[in-house]
Amino acid sequence: MTDPPAKTPDRRPGGRTARIRAQVLDAVRAELAEGGHEGLTMEGVAARAGVHRTTVYRRWRDVGGLLVDVIAAAGETDWQPPDTGSLLGDLTALNQEIQQSLTAQPSFAVALMAASFHSEQAARAQTKLWADRYAQCEILVDRAVERGELPSRHTDARSLLIAATAPLYHQLVLLRADPDPRLPERSAAAALLAAGAGAFTVRPHESG
Length: 208
Prior knowledge:
The chain is mainly α. Helix 1 (15-35) packs across helix 2, helix 5 (87-103) runs antiparallel to helix 9 (183-196) and helix 8 runs antiparallel to helix 9. The two termini are 37 Å apart. The longest helix is centred in the middle third of the chain and has 27 residues, at 120-146. It has helices spanning 15-35, 42-49, 53-60, 63-76, 87-103, 108-115, 120-146, 157-174, 183-196, 204-207. Helix content is 67%, strand content 0%.
C-alpha cells in the first residue's frame, strides 16, 4: 500500500497550534500502540485527542501524514547517547534503552515499525530517524578510540553499533522471545570483542 505525499510543517508550531499537535500526536501513539496500523484512523485520533476531525484532516491529510509527524517528533526530542566512561557500558546502556522500548506493553516502538511496512511515507521517515540516531551514537566509538579501547581510528562506527544493537531487534521483534536481562550486555560485549579483533576496522581509502 502506498500513500500520497503529505505536507509536514517547515517549522515547529507555537501556542494553540503546538498544543493541538501535541494532543494529536499523543493520540496517534496511543491508538497505534493499542490497535496497530490497522486500527489507526483519522476519526479515532481526532476523538481521542479531543480535536475536530476537520482540523486533523486539514493539517495531516491522512494516516501517512500522522505517522510521518510522529516520527519527526521523535527526532525533535533532546535525546543524548549514554556516557558511562567505557564503550561496554555505553553499548549496554544503549541496548537497555532499546530493550525497554521494545518490551513495553503496549510497545509503541514495535507498532511504529510494523506501520512502516504499510506506509511508504512512514518507512522513509523512520529510515531517516534511525540513520540519524546511529550517526548521533557514533560519538560512543569516537570516545572509545580516544580512550584506547579500540585498535585504531579507522573503526567503522556504524557497523559496530549495528552489530551491538541488532540482537535486540532479532530476539524481541523477529523471534518474539521473552526479554533476557543479560542480552543488552551480552550483545554489547560480543560487538566489543569483534571490534577489538578488527572486525570493523576499515582501511583509510575504504572509509571515504
